[in-house]
Amino acid sequence: MDNRPQICLKVSRLSKRYGGQQVLRDISFSLQEGEILGIIGPNGAGKTTLFNIITGWVPPSGGEVVFLGEKTTDWTPDRLCRGGMARTFQIPQVFPEMSVLENVMTGAWFGQQSRPSAAQARDQSRELLGLVELAAKEATPARELSLMQQRLLELARALATRPKLLLLDEVAAGLSLKAVKCLSNLILRLRTQGLTLLLTDHLLHLIMPVSDRLLALDQGEIIAEGSPQDLIQNPEVESAYLGVRGAAGEEG
Amino acid sequence: MKLKPYHSSILATAAALGLAAWPLFFPDAFLYFQVLGMACLYGTLALAWSIYALSGAISLGHAAFFGLGAYGSALLNHYWHWSPFLTIFLGSLASVSFGLLWSLFFRRLRGVYLGLASLAAVEIPRVIIDNWDAVTYGSMGMTGLGKLPTLSLGSWQLAFGSDLKAQYYLLLTVVIGATILYKLAMGSRWGWALRAVRENETAATMMGIRVNRERTKALLCSSYLTGVCGALYAHILGLIEPALVFSLHVSALPLIFTIFGGRTLFFGPVLGALLLYPLEQLVFQPLFPSGHAAVYGLVIILTILFFPRGIAAWITARKSA
Amino acid sequence: MSFNAWPWFQIIASGFSLGSFYALVALGFSLIFGITRAFNLAHGEMIVLGGYLAFVLWKFYQVPFFLTLPPCLLAMAGLSLPLYLLLRRLKEPYALNTLVVTFGLALLLQNLMLVLFSADYRLLDSGLTSFTIPRIGITFSWNQGVLLLLSLLATAGVHLVLHHTFLGKALRATIQDWEAAQMAGINVKLMSFIAFGMGGMLIGLAGPLYGQNMYLYPTAGTEATLIAIIITIFAGVGRIRTLLLGGWLLGLMESAAIFTVGSKWRELVSAAVLVTLLYFRPEGISFRKPG
User: Fold this and answer.
1) Residue B266 burial class via C-beta count within 10 angstroms: exposed 0-12, middle 13-18, buried 19 and up
2) Which of A57, A131, B73, C16 has its CA 20 to 30 A from that of A82?
């Protein structure tokens, strides 16, 4: 094996059109192992579509995705999961009737490359529930959790699949400032364990402090790329982004 | 969830022992052997239906598998004179082939639309068999099919075809075996995957579960067991006709037994069959000689309205309280 | 290979009258589904029940065919109201629950009809003759004519109500967006009630026509239900003209099947069409704006 810094994810010239509407145009970027990349942009900029293409939910109209050296553009989401890519959704997708522990166990049992025993899956899941501070709720059915708790549960479940790359879609949406702070601590802790992360958010208070690098997306195109400090001063970003911030802030 | 399986296993074992033991005290209750034997067959059918339902699918067309299994076995028996014990298992492969086509065509259907498609799916084998007179004798059906053969264990003769008691024990064994397999499947890794698929397909995919593959596996198991039930039915009656096996009635029964008995517990489908079928045969048939099956329609409407989780949930709720 | 012209005329003529009737069969189903989101799998059974009612009136009380229509209309509308009250009580998942409950209702009705009318095949003979158009040689029965005329009249009537009355506006709004209609002050419960009433009347009209053109037997309803589902999926809800087109297409396909491979294979057409339709449109019934 070579010792160059490993590329975890490489996206080249990705585009997507729905009918006559160009949702993504020529998106190229790459992500090194252990890096945290944030994608910012107003609602409707194409962040979720980009996520859906990378994770195999939606086929792109053009371009390709290379994950850990393999071309994964036509892989199914479940195959990508077993291959080491996990994600969360804007609206948390939990198993409503399963308990919190069972939710996480599902990830550990089915999502890993190796197949752990049920007991191993349970132990790993308990550990992860401790990490996201849901251990006290392990017997509660997932439908009874609050939005914040469902997000954390989804995060724990995604981690249970032992991903190399974790994609978090709008993970801070609808959370209080305090919750966001907890979450950003957690994210930084995960990175020290060697996880690569790709985040989106249309508000900046989570993504700014944790990201190594930011990518600004507007109307399906990358308009700027750089460190969080550089990007926030970029006039183009400011006009595309802050112009809608007032409206977006009401939802957030 | 932690205590219930333990309680319900004891309950189910007790019920199974009771069903096995009562003929010792009433050796001549032939009507009851017949009715309870058929109830066991329908219980197996309901379990077969439930395997597919574990993946979240509500089928309104299991009569297709039932009828194909029945015809598959009947035709092998009729033309090649193979023993029913062999044809029941081989003939049911017709149901599995139809299951493969089903999973191919209905791959993208969910919920209500899967139900509607399954309703139409019954018509296809029915019309073909109804009209293919040269092979299947068309709508006249076939009579004089081989009865279930006699098994000799030393001096002990088990005449499954003619002795109603032996037949009852055979069907009881089948339903107990199917229940045990169903319980094992529910508790296995595969059963867990099906549960995840049923509860949230998006999340299940995201956790690396091959949703379509698991669902297809469930359908194939379900279609095979349904086919076996149909084949047993044909050889027990000794006759077969399309209107009998490809009917709305056959599609509806496993659904009604399962929903009435309770979807969440492993013995729910069998419980429903064991309660409702004797009720219909012993109470309603004498009262209404021709339309007694109307009671099933009534039961399903009332069950959905008043206790959608089924009788089994009610029993265990009372036990744990 | 004598390529005679008359079967094609015959196919088209019977296809159109059959197809118009199919549109009528689908109309009640589609109206009820569009407004209440309830699947009525007992739709066909209710039509057959209406047919039996007309049969009884005609056979035992010597009521002329056309006079059986008003009592059937009223009776089936009356029967739809308890169904409305029943389906209103169902909980989520609503569509699936209505499917299972009406499936049970279909079984119930089939058995009731077996008790009341036995399993024999019945045909309502309205005493109308057939006539042959000279030269072309098409035989066209007055039965088919009545079928075509009444089906088209009823369809046109529903179209008029939906598109040219205030009530129709409210109904269409409810079909398109239930919540928005409620927000706009439309009494959605009343609309559901009306939908079941209208649907019941359409069933009551379809019943005697069914009995006059096709054999009545207790399990005949399944096919009519399938036909209603097919046309509703083809057309989406609330679009009467597309509904009529769907009915015609299906009618033409069936009559073409009768003339080419024989009438016994006709029943396969609707099942095959439904499976194919769902294969290509797995999302099912669309709620696009009525066009």
Assistant:
1) buried
2) A131
Question: B111 at the C interface (CB within 8 A)?
Answer: yes
The verdict on residue C14 lying in a domain is: no
Query: CB of B305 within 8 Å of any CB in chain C?
Result: yes
Q: HEC states along chain B?
A: CCCHHHHHHHHHHHHHHHHHHHHHHCCCCHHHHHHHHHHHHHHHHHHHHHHHHCCCCCCCCCHHHHHHHHHHHHHHHHHHCCCHHHHHHHHCHHHHHHHHHHHHHCCCCCHHHHHHHHHHHHHHHHHHHHHCHHHHCHHHCECCCCCCCEEEECCEEEECCCCHHHHHHHHHHHHHHHHHHHHHHHHCHHHHHHHHHHHCHHHHHHCCCCHHHHHHHHHHHHHHHHHHHHHHHHHHHCCECHHHHCCHHHHHHHHHHHHHHCCCCCCHHHHHHHHHHHHHHHHHHHHCCCCCCHHHHHHHHHHHHHCCCHHHHHHHHHHHC
Residues of chain A in contact with residue B189, where contact means CB-CB under 8 angstroms, are 109, 118
Tell me whether residue C194 is in a domain: yes
**Chain B residues lying within 8 Å of C82, measured CB to CB:** none
| pLDDT tens, per residue, chain A with 252 residues | 455 568 889 998 999 988 888 889 899 999 998 899 998 888 778 888 999 999 999 999 999 999 998 899 999 999 999 999 999 988 899 999 999 999 999 999 998 888 888 899 999 999 999 988 888 998 999 999 988 889 889 999 999 999 999 999 887 777 778 888 888 888 888 888 889 999 887 767 778 888 889 888 888 888 888 888 887 777 777 777 655 444 444 333
Q: How many angstroms separate the CA atoms of A248 and A172, rounded?
A: 13
- C226–B contact, CB cutoff 8 A: yes
**C106 contacts in B (CB within 8 Å)?**
248, 297
Residue C99 belongs to some domain of the structure: yes
Residues of C whose CB is below 8 A from B130: 264
Residue C202 dihedral angles phi and psi, to the nearest 5°:
-65, -40
Domain that holds residue C55: 24-118+143-279
C-alpha–C-alpha distance, residues C50 and C72, integer Å = 6
Number of B/C CB contacts below 8 angstroms equals: 140
- Chain C contact probe: residue of B60, B123, B132 with most C CBs at under 10 A: B123
Architecture of domain B5-320: Orthogonal Bundle (1.10)
Nearest CB neighbour to A96, from listed B192, B199, B205: B199
Strand partners for A24? A16
Residue range C233-251: average pLDDT?
88
Chains that touch A (3 or more CB pairs under 8 A): B
Neighbours of B64 (CB within 10 A): 30
* Phi, psi at A226, each rounded to 5°: 160, -170
Domains identified in chain C, total number: 1
Is residue C241 domain-resident? yes
Nearest CB among A55, A95, A118 relative to B199 is that of A95
B212 lies within 8 A of chain A by CB: no
Q: Which residue of A has its CA nearest to B197?
A: A95
